[in-house]
Amino acid sequence: MAYFKYKQVADQLLEAIQNGIYKPGDKIPKEEELCAQFNVGRQTLRSAVSQLEESGYLKRVQGSGTYVCDPNASDPAAENGDENPVSFMPAGNPGVIALVMMNSENYVFLDLMRGISDYLMEQGYVLTTMMTDGDYERERIALENLLQNPPAGILLEPVWPRVLSVNESLLKEVSQKIPCLLLHSDATDLFPAYPLRDCDGMYKMTEYLLELGHKKIGTLFSFDETTGQNRYLGCMHALRDHGMAQTRERTVWFEHSRAEDLFEPGGSIGIDRMLKDVTAVLCHDDRIAYRLIQYLQDRGIRVPEDISVCGYDDSSYATMDLPLTTVRYDGKYYGRRAAETLLQMVRQPGTDLSGMHVKEPELIIRESTAPPKAV
To answer: What is the mean pLDDT of residues 145-152?
Structure first.
C-alpha cells in the first residue's frame, strides 16, 4: 500500500504537537509557511490537516486559521461528580471570542466594540464580529456557524430579546456547548447577562423630573428591546414610590426598527395624544429625544419652556442641537467589563457571577429640562 505524502505530513505535524512544539490553543503556521516547510502543495497540506482534524488534534476556523486541540480533554464538572455538568465542547478556536450583535448602525456599537476589542487584545484573544440585522434567519446562520467552528466564548445580543425567539432550540444548544454572555439583556435560564442597570438609570431621571415639579410625564419606549422595557419599569417604579400612576394616554410604545415612523403623519397620532397631557417626556434614547425635539419645534412647541425632553445614553445626539438631559451609557467601559466577565467564564467554568461589578448610571443634566410652566 502506498504511503501517501499527505500522511507523512500529518505524521510530522502530529509529532510536533505531541512533542509540545504546538500546544493546545496554539495557531499553527499559515498554509504557505507549512507548504514551504514540508515542500508540498496546498492540496497535500490540506489533506494532512483534514486527517488531524478528524482525529481531534486540529480545528480549522474560517477566516482565522487552524488551532491545536486536545483530543483527550474531558469535562472537569463530570469528573467531579456534577449531576448536571455544563458540557462545553472543546473550543475549536480557543484564541477567538465571537461578538454577535443585532445592529452595527446603532450609535453605541462602536464604543462597545472598542471596549471589548481592547480588553481581548490585552489578553491575547481575537474578536470576530457577526451582525444579524435583527433577522432571525441571519441569527440562525451565525449560531450554526459558531457551533461548527466554536470560539472560546460568545458575547451575544439576541434578536429581539423581549420577543419569543424562533431560534430558541438553537440558542439552548449554544448555551450547553459554548460559554456565552448576553449583552443589553436580562439573564435567562440559558444564559447569564452583563446588566446595564437601565431600570436604575431611568428611575434617577424620573425622580429628577419629579423634583422639578413635573407630575404628568410621558414615556416613549421601544417595546421589543430589553432596554426599552427596563427603562419603562424604572419610570414606573419611581412614579409608584411617589404615589403617582401612569395613564395610557401618556404612554407610547414603538418597534425599534421602525422608530422613524413615529414622526411621520400616520405614526404621530400617539405622540400628539400624549403631548396634550404631559409637561415632560422620557425617551428611549438620545436619538428619539433629538427627533422628538425637532417634531416639537416644527409645531411651535418650545423645549424646555413648554415641554421638557430627556434622552438616554449621552451619545453624540445629546449635544447636536439643544443639549439633552440624559443618562450616561459608557459603551467602552461596558464592553470591556463584559469581555472581562466572559473570559472569567471561559477560564473558570462555574464561576459565581452574582457579585459582578456594574457601573452605576450617571444622570447628566443639561438644557432640555426645566420646571413645568406655572398654571
So the answer is: 92
> Tell me, what CATH number does 203's domain have?
3.40.50.2300
pLDDT at 257: 79
103 shares its domain with 175: yes
Query: How far is it, in rounded angstroms, from Cα 236 to Cα 245?
Result: 8
Q: State the number of CA atoms in the 13 A half-sphere of 80 facing the CB.
A: 10
Q: Which three cell numbers stand for residue 51?
A: 486527517
Helices (H) and strands (E) counted in the chain, each on its own, are 12, 13
pLDDT over threshold 70, residue 59: yes
Average pLDDT, stretch 308-319?
94
Cα dihedral across residues 87, 92, 98, 101: positive or negative? negative
Distance CA 361, CA 202 (A): 9
Digit-coded pLDDT (tens) for 221-242: 998 888 899 999 999 999 999 9
Distance from C-alpha of 87 to C-alpha of 289, rounded to nearest angstrom: 45
- 278 and 217 in a common domain: yes
- The crossing angle, in degrees rounded to 10, of helices 109-122 and 331-347 is 40
User: Beta-carbon neighbour count of residue 241 at 10 Å?
Assistant: 12
C-alpha cell at 357: 461589578
Q: What pLDDT is recorded for position 221?
A: 95
pTM summary value? 0.69
Distance CA 157, CA 362 (A): 23
Q: Report DSSP letters for 24-67, one per residue.
A: TTPBPPPHHHHHHHHT--HHHHHHHHHHHHHTTSEEEETTTEEE
CATH code where residue 54 lies: 1.10.10.10
> What 3-state DSSP class applies to 203?
helix
In DSSP terms, which residues pair with 126 in a beta bridge?
Answer: 96
- Whats the size of the chain, residue-wise? 375
Could you tell me if 180 and 219 lie in one domain? no
Phi, psi (5° rounding) for residue 154? -130, 130
Cis peptide before 24 (omega within 30 of 0): no
The number of distinct structural domains making up the chain is 3
* Whether residues 165 and 203 fall in one domain: no
**Are 245 and 308 contained in the same domain?**
yes
Q: What are 1's three cell numbers?
A: 500500500
